[in-house]
Write a structure and sequence with these properties.
Blueprint (H helix, E strand, L loop, with lengths): L2 E10 L6 E11 L4 E5 L6 H9 L6 E9 L2 E2 L5 H10 L1 E4 L3 H4 L6 H12 L4 H14 L5 H6 L7 H13 L5 E5 L7 H18 L2 E6 L2 H7 L2 E6 L2 E7 H6 L4 H8 L15
Parallel strand pairs: 3-8, 3-9, 6-7, 7-8
Antiparallel strand pairs: 1-2, 1-4, 4-5, 9-10
Length: about 270
């Protein structure tokens, strides 16, 4: 298995009483797998992703095991962990406008990880950045490379963030609510982009979303979280057609009846 999360817990001891945000979560991902982590806001899904990546604040007490390609991320030194996080695991966050630095051109930001993790010369970095931007579905990458974040639409900013996450060709991409702030047409295009990245590069994707329809349109397996725990998991079609848990049934029932997200329209 590429990723093995075993009995992962996250407790915030600085709260009164202490808050258990993640409570004994376990799941596995194989190479190139598409797994959705579903649940409403506060269910613990984003905290789980942040624990995997070591992005939680110092007040968070993390226990359990997180093994990536056989190495436990939780017991690594901070230097080792940064290497793995930068090169082998990347994350795309929900809000690209706050994730992108408004004072830096987009291309320079896409290249950032190359400056930190490689010794590539500037021309090589630009070539790799343009390749990542093309893979992320950005039209006219040369123009976007020179653009400022405020000159891009919300969908294009999200694609720029995906390009930044892909530039080192990671084995695992964690997408944390990547379509939440986007309209349905742009959502569909972002999901198509992630599907194509998975197909072309073999990149495994952990998609975190409160929206089960989004997960159904991309993933092959889903794990449903409630109150910090996984309450149901299995193949996407099985969970949708025959959900066992009342909570899962409520999540499915709360979705619109659209069968599939529809593409089309202008570039997002």
């Amino acid at each position: 298995m590429m990723l093995e999360v075993e009995n992962l817990s996250v407790v915030f001891r600085d709260r009164r009483p202490p808050l258990t945000a993640v409570d004994g979560v376990s799941f596995q991902m194989g190479e190139g797998e598409l797994l959705g982590l579903a649940g409403e806001s506060g269910s613990g899904k984003s905290r789980t992703a942040h624990a995997i990546l070591g992005l939680l604040p110092a007040a968070a007490e993390v226990s359990g095991g997180v093994r990536f390609q056989g190495r436990d991320l939780l017991t690594m030194s901070s230097v080792e962990r940064r290497q793995v996080q930068g090169k082998d695991i990347s994350i795309v966050f929900q809000e690209p406008m706050t994730s992108l630095n408004p004072t830096m051109r987009v291309g320079r930001q896409v290249e950032d990880a190359l400056r930190v993790h490689t010794k590539m010369a500037a021309p090589e970095r630009k070539t790799r950045a343009l390749e990542a931007m093309e893979l992320a579905g950005l039209p006219d990458p040369e123009r976007v490379y020179r653009a400022w974040p405020h000159e891009l639409s919300g969908g294009m900013r999200q694609r720029a963030m995906i390009a930044s996450a892909l530039v080192l060709r990671p084995r695992l991409l964690i997408a944390d609510e990547p379509t939440t702030a986007l309209d349905v047409t742009v959502q569909a295009k972002i999901l198509d982009t992630l599907r194509e990245i998975n197909r072309k590069e073999g990149t495994a994707i952990l998609l975190i979303s409160h929206d089960l329809l989004v997960i159904r349109n991309l993933c092959t397996r889903v794990a449903v979280m409630k109150d910090g725990r996984i309450v149901e998991s299995g193949p996407v079609d099985q969970v949708f057609q025959s959900p066992r848990e009342d909570y899962t049934k409520l999540l499915i029932a709360s979705r619109p009846t659209r069968k599939k997200l529809q593409g089309g329209g202008s570039h997002g």
